[in-house]
Amino acid sequence: MAQQVATVRMPGGSAIVGAGSVALLAAYPFGVYFLMGRGNLRIAGLALVAVLAIRLLTPGAPRLQALAALATGTVFAAAIVATNSELLARLYPVGVSATMLAVFGWTLLRPPSMVERIARATGAVLDEAGVRYTRAVTVIWCVFFIANGAVAFATAVAGSREAWALYNGLLSYLLAGALLVGERLVRELVRRRATRVARQ
């Protein structure tokens, strides 16, 4: 689910396309759940690549994340189409978390951090404190990807179909959304505190 973790603002029809592609990706687990009982998961694999390609081509989409997600999705889709494997279809969200962990983690080793890149892409001007803050937020997202990937793996290999679809199609998105909202609130508190200190 993490390819929709952080997106830059997209104007007009691009925003609609971007939101639509995210919604379709969120629906992936439920589509797989529907196809599980019908024995043909190859459709899910093909649809996955199509949605990820749309995501990559959407103007304003974060390029590094979109490319990484497309690469991961293509590998999983090819394997699913070739094997019609339910386990591989269920492991795709684990692959996404692992890919996003690698992308975000790499930017910690090769600054600027991912969150700093996204902030600057939206026009933000960051001072030294802002750079440190965005780096810390990137670390937090890395921890989230580790935890989310672990739960996704557990539901894939040991959970019921219903538990897998519920977590990976709904709960993981709610948790990511809660993290986004929480970070925004913390950011506002930090900004206000910095403003008060500057006025003193």
Please characterize this protein's 3D structure.
This protein is mostly helical and 200 residues long. The chain has one domain (2-199). It is built from eight helices and no strands. The chain has helices at residues 12-26, 28-36, 42-57, 63-83, 86-109, 114-121, 128-157, 161-199. Helix 4 (63-83) packs antiparallel against helix 5 (86-109) and helix 5 (86-109) runs antiparallel to helix 7. The N and C termini lie far apart (43 Å).
Write a brief caption for the model.
The protein is mainly α. It has helices spanning 12-26, 28-36, 42-57, 63-83, 86-109, 114-121, 128-157, 161-199. It has one domain (2-199).
Question: Structural class of the helices, strands and pairings?
Answer: mainly alpha
- The count of β-strands is 0
Strand residues, percent: under 5%
The rough form would be described as elongated
| Mean pLDDT across every amino acid position | 83
Cα-atom radius of gyration: 18 Å
Number of separate domains: 1
Helix percent reads: over 70%
Major sheet attributes? none
Which regions are unreliable across 5 or more consecutive residues at pLDDT < 50? 2-13
Question: Please, how many helices?
Answer: 8
